[in-house]
Amino acid sequence: MEVKDANAALLSNFEVFQLLTDLKQQRKESGKNKQSSGQQNLNTIMYETLKYISKTPCRYQSPETVREFLAAMKGHKLTKAEKLQLLNHRPVTAVEIQLADSPPLFASVSHSENARCAR
User: Fold this and answer.
1) Which of 7, 15, 17, 55: disulfide with 11, CB 3.0–4.6 Å?
2) What digits encode the pLDDT tens for the residues 9-35?
């Protein structure tokens, strides 16, 4: 496989979590016992990534909440990367938003508006 454009799309933590959870389920269902060393390395990476990402807010997200968030952010002048940062970290309090906004990235959005959309 050849990568044509490495920056074609950004994945949210929710999308990665969903993909890895689906792959894990497929592997359980297939029941293959014999694995190569490369496959064992991939399993380790998948396990560590799922272990980390399951502690983040994406565990509680759904496709509907992601769509609602993106719709709420349409009226603001944010880049895709800024929207992704807000979606992944889901700051709720003004303090969390202030920390996420250092240096000021989200000048076009008030902190209270960010908190309302992130919930």
Assistant:
1) 15
2) 888 999 999 999 998 888 888 876 667
